[in-house]
User: Fold this.
Amino acid sequence: MNKIKESPAPSPASKESLRLWLRILKVQRMVEAELRERLRVEFDTTLPRFDVMSALYRYRDGMKMSELSRALKVSNGNVTGIVDRLAEDGLALRVPVPGDRRAAMVRLTKRGIETFEAQAAAHEVWVHEALGGLEGEESAMVARMLDHALTEGDDDAE
Amino acid sequence: MNKIKESPAPSPASKESLRLWLRILKVQRMVEAELRERLRVEFDTTLPRFDVMSALYRYRDGMKMSELSRALKVSNGNVTGIVDRLAEDGLALRVPVPGDRRAAMVRLTKRGIETFEAQAAAHEVWVHEALGGLEGEESAMVARMLDHALTEGDDDAE
DNA sequence: GAGAAATATTTCAAGCTTGAAGGTTTAAGC
DNA sequence: GCTTAAACCTTCAAGCTTGAAATATTTCTC
Assistant:
């Protein structure tokens, strides 16, 4: 394994963005790998399932499939499968929407809520363990700057 | 869709880490979706293929499969499939390692190198377009702080 | 109100991803 | 040297993910 010198440098500014991007990717992958592993070992679940449940937990009275996929920024067909499996396990269920026979609301079951609450508490601790190297002030600043880095398309603010 | 108020707050510090994590995730997903789409439309390829080729481009004289999976932080079996497909397309190839009949070196073909160079140039521009909202100094600072946020396990520095 | 366009969801094929299990080859310990 | 452990890679099943195509329903337009 012999590292080769970089090729010609196209633009200083874009090189800097690229460096930042690679750093973001590195942090994201490390943290995500940790979370995935822990969710698997301690709760026998997966990150996508956790993400879906997290969204459903926030919107306690249910979300439409399309809202769910938009909130998670994943494809439509994707959530179908995940919700299917959550439903099989009795953690979520589809309820028909009164005025619209195309749509379906998805919501956590009672068991789904309880299950998620346990997972979420652990999840928060894990994230802090993985990412706690910054003081509160720094952490907030990085978050702010990251938001600012997105040049556009920053929809659905929290 | 009716947003429900947050549940009890476990710890201020971990809440702050969680906020940062969600922000990182948001940025990562937006940029990645953009890159994936562009790679698909303009080069008929995928992000994982690009990642593998990127690693092989840096280590021009080849990497072992295990080095590749370690560098990309993905599982062993994963790269097997991706390299298979790259090889089918004539972009990469496996060469036996003289002293070790278990291992195989993977390297880009001439065509693989040319293909990647075109993709990489476009990729860098795309990243800058997506993430160029920060001045060079800020960008570098965020990168530095992100690195610092990882409390441990920060191996293979660049 | 009939037809066209828009919306909501599912299905599907292809590819990505993981963790575990299996096969081969090499290195270590005795 | 022989056995055991380690390293390298592939295969496999299950699940995730996408984009496109198919269905069904609703809304718009004339």
Q: What stands out?
A: The first helix of chain A runs from residue 12 to 43. Residues 5-9, 153-158 of chain A have pLDDT under 50 and may be disordered. The beta strands of chain A are 63-64, 92-97, 100-108.
